[in-house]
Each structure stands twice: as structure tokens, then as C-alpha cells.
Amino acid sequence: MGSASSADRFVHTPVRQRTVSARELTGFTRQLATLVSSGVPLLQSLEAIHKGLAGQPMAPVVEQLRQQIAAGLSLQAALRQHRVFSELYCQMVAAGELSGNLDDMLNRLAWHTERQQQLLRKVRMALVYPVAVLLIALGVVAVILVWLVPVFQSIFASLGAELPWATRLILGLSDALLRGGLPMLGALVTVGWLVRQRYRTNPRFQWWVALRALRLPLLAPVVTNANLAVWTRCMAMLMQSGVPLLDTLETVAGACGNRVYAMASLRIRDAVFKGIGLAEALRQLEFRSHQLGAEFTGLFPPLLVQMIDLGEQSGSLSALLGKAADAQDEALEQQVHSLTQLIEPLLVVVLGGLVGGMVIALYLPVFQLGQVM
Q1: I want to staple 239 with a disulfide (CB 3.0 to 4.6 A). Which of 71, 152, 318, 324 is the partner?
Q2: Are 210 and 259 in contact (CB under 8 A)?
Q3: Is 88 left (phi over 0), alpha (psi -120 to 50) or beta?
Q4: Are 364 and 164 spatial neighbours (Cβ–Cβ below 8 Å)?
Q5: Residue 9 vs residues 1, 82, 256: alpha-carbon distances, Å
Q6: How far apart are CA 110 and CA 128, in angstroms?
């Protein structure tokens, strides 16, 4: 597979839609791993799981899997018929069936999906927390402008005195919100919906979002480490399962949440296909997006590349990739903790400044009146 064909195939791949949540998939994998490890035949395991999933989105998927396997398909072949299961998931199951260690592979998959959920929760906590606090702050400001400021406005009107500029600004904002608040809210909701639809259907916009995510102030290290944790963990799991390196890199490209890292994985695969070692391919990695006019370098830290180089020389690449994944998880936890500690006082200052500034602006005429009297 050439580099151009790999890039084109990935760029035009639509974002996968799932009706089954990650939590449901994790629960299914854990239950299946437990039953198969206990010696329960696969068909009976799927039937037992299906009975416990009554009414859940995963239930029809499990029933179809049972019917397909009863008709003669292998488990990995049946999994590939459903978009719920990623290529990584199918590759792991295929390796387990081929080696006769399906129960071990299912346990690894269950552990991996649980770790992935923990990783997502950590990243969401770092990204969503400041946004949530700012939205709460904006809600408090809106309540003050809509319900509190008009009361002060009637009082100021009865005084007939000239108001300070800060007070006039708050009164103007309140008047604008009362007159055009609902149209503004509708416009924001519409813009949000349009942006979401464009992200789903426009590969160029997906690239733009992926690139900007790696350059966000304060948050870029968290996003980068989250992608590196996924990349190293998937590489380690697939290689430990006996999947060839070329297939591993192509599968990992599909597992990466950020399109920049996905494209980098395909470029690395093309370099390895030409006979270059994995570590050297990482060192030489440098490509340009003609869609965005941006160059991508330094996606993989030198320490990770050095560990991969040592793993290739010693023949223990999969083990070192596993240790690198553990190190990335620890680095991500520390970064999320540090970022949270940094953002919390900053948000308190912002929230206090907004609300406190508005209150001071509203009481300035009262203070001036008191001084005159």
C-alpha cells in the first residue's frame, strides 16, 4: 500500500457512528471474557449475555452474533459484520482464535476498553471542567442581567442623576439581553448544530480540528499525551497478540482519535513496508497536509523513540511498548492533575471578577449618592 493511497483512503473515511455506548461495549467484553474463561461454550455465553441485556442497544447485536456463529462464522468474522466493533477489537479476537487463547485475548480487550474509558474520563475532566464552570458563570451573569439589573434600573431612573460609565454598560447589556436574548440563544444553538454537522461530513474540517487540538494553549500537552497513550497501548496489545507490525500500524491508525496521529501511523507503516525500522521511521516522520498547508513534526517524543529503538535491538519491542504505555498513562494523570490545580484558581478569579465587577458597577451610583448626601 503506497503512501498516497493510504492517505486518501483515510482522509475520506467518514467518522464512525455508534449506537452502542463505550460502557455497554466494555460490559459485554468483560462478561464474554468471564464466561469463556470459565469454560462456557461461546454460543451459550452469548445466549446468557443476551438474556441479561434485554432492552439495551447491545442486545440485538449479541443476538445477531450468536446467530452468525451458529451458522458457521468464526467470532472475529461475525464481529466484522457490525460497526460497533473496531478494527482493533476484531484483530485482537482474530489473534486469540488463531492462537487458541481467545479467553486471554478477551480479558485483555476487557482490560483495554476499561482503561480507555478511564483515559477518556481523565481527558474530559481536563477539557470539560473549565468549559462547564464558564457556562455556569455565564448563566449567573445572565440571571443578574435579566432579573436583578432591571430593579436597579428603575431605582436609578427615579434618582435622575448621571450614572457612571460602568453602570451604563451593565444597563446596556441588560437591555440588549432582554430584547434579543432568545434570538441570540437560537442563533448559538443553530451555529453549534451546523458546526457538528460539518465535522461529521467534512474531512477538511476534521483535519483542522485535529490540528488545532494539538496546539491549544495549556491543553495541548494533555491532548498529545492522550493520543500517545492510545497509540502505545494499542501497539503493545496487538504486537503482544502476534499481529504483524504492518497490520498493527494500519489498525492503530484506525484506533487513533486524532487524525494527525492516524495519518502519522499510516506514514510510518509505509516507511516500515519499505524496510525502515520502526524507530527510524519515527525519527524521519515529517509530512505536510496539502489541505491545511501545515507540517507535522515532533509527534512522538525522543524518549519514546529511544525505547522503541532499544526494543527492536533487544527483541522485546512489545514489552517496551507496554512499559511506554504505562509511562504515558502516568504522565497523562500528572498533567490532568496539574492542569486542574492551575485552572481552578483561575476560574475562581474569572467568576469572581465577572460577578463582583457587575455588583460593584450596580452599586457605584449608590456610593456616589451617599458621598453627596
Answers
A1: 318
A2: yes
A3: alpha
A4: yes
A5: 11, 20, 15
A6: 26
Entry field: residues in the chain: 373
Could you tell me the three cell numbers for 352?
469572581
Neighbours of 236 (CB within 10 A): 22
Residue 135: all three cell numbers together: 457556562
Residue by residue, pLDDT tens for the chain (373 residues) are 444 444 343 333 333 334 777 788 888 888 888 888 888 888 899 899 888 887 788 888 888 998 999 988 888 888 888 888 887 788 888 888 877 778 888 888 888 778 777 777 777 777 777 777 778 878 888 888 888 788 777 777 776 667 778 878 888 888 887 787 778 778 888 888 888 888 778 777 877 887 888 887 777 888 888 888 888 888 888 888 788 888 888 888 877 778 888 888 888 999 999 988 898 888 888 665 545 445 566 788 888 888 899 988 888 888 888 888 888 888 888 888 787 777 778 878 878 888 888 888 877 777 766 554 4
Q: What angle do CA 29, 250, 333 make, to 5 degrees?
A: 60
Single-letter code of the amino acid located at 38: S
Q: What is the pTM of this model?
A: 0.69
CA 356/CA 351 separation, integer angstroms: 8
